[in-house]
Amino acid sequence: MKRARQKLKTHRSLLAAAIRVLGSAGNFSAISLREVTKIAGIVPAAFYRHFNNMDELGVELVDYSFKPLRRMLKEIRQKPYGASRLLVETVDAYLTYVKLHRKFFIFLSRERSGGLPPVRSAIRHELSEIAKELSEDLLKIPRFRNLSEEDVLTIAALVIDTMISSTDLALDLPPGQSAEETTLHLETQRKLRLIFLGAQSWAKLKKPTLE
Asked: What distance in Å separates the CA atoms of residue 117 and residue 59, rounded to the nearest whole number?
């Protein structure tokens, strides 16, 4: 039991070390195994007791970053809020989470477009899962029941794209810019409202068409 706890502690230390190195190294592909193990306080050979290679570390880092976020968003959607308050609460909670976990999101933002293929694939998978979970919850709302699962998944994807854009803007804000942060929160809420208003109008049509 003690050995298992120590192994878990070392495993988490490697993840934390990778995030720390990323703060100065840039892309994940630019960091070395030796850098990570040095900060984690283990010899390089011990790395392979936890990961087969750096790609595997990167993929787990993606899972490590997304897991609590997905749980938080799911918990918010399960609260008995009205639609307007739910939107505000979700945006505020998410952007606050980005601020509190800035290094994780810098990692995700960089790797999403220019990272190693396995890491990019892992990020796409996580974003797809978030969209799928959101679409499943949207389908439970009466106003969207006239839409197909494919349509609702598209709505969810638009929401995710908007949040990704806001994430990038949030990461570009200098620390202490409360006015700019407030503006970003409000602009994100407005964009999502427009998405959902459009979705509601679309759902009211018996046979949705652009013609």
From this structure: 10
Provide mean pLDDT across the span 99-114.
89
> Same domain, yes or no, for 88 and 162?
yes
Examine residue 152 and state whether it is found in any structural domain, yes or no.
yes
Question: How high is the pLDDT of residue 37?
Answer: 95
How many structural domains does the chain have? 2
Does some domain include residue 8?
yes
Helices within 26-148 (DSSP H only): 33-40, 54-77, 83-100, 102-114, 117-138
The C-alpha atoms of residue 21 and residue 39 are separated, in whole angstroms, by: 8
The closest alpha carbon to 167, from 135, 210, 127, 204, belongs to: 127
Residue with tokens 């190294």: 25
Q: Per the structure block, which two tokens stand in for 24?
A: 């100065």
* Residue 208 pLDDT exceeds 80: no
Rg (the chain; Cα; Å): 20
List, for residues 132-188, the tens digit of each pLDDT value: 999 999 888 888 888 889 999 999 999 999 999 999 999 999 887 889 999 999 999
**151-159 contact pairs (CB < 8 A, 24+):** 151/202, 151/208, 155/195, 155/196, 155/199, 156/131, 156/132, 157/131, 158/195, 159/131, 159/134, 159/192, 159/195
Report the C-alpha gap between 33 and 187 in whole angstroms: 41
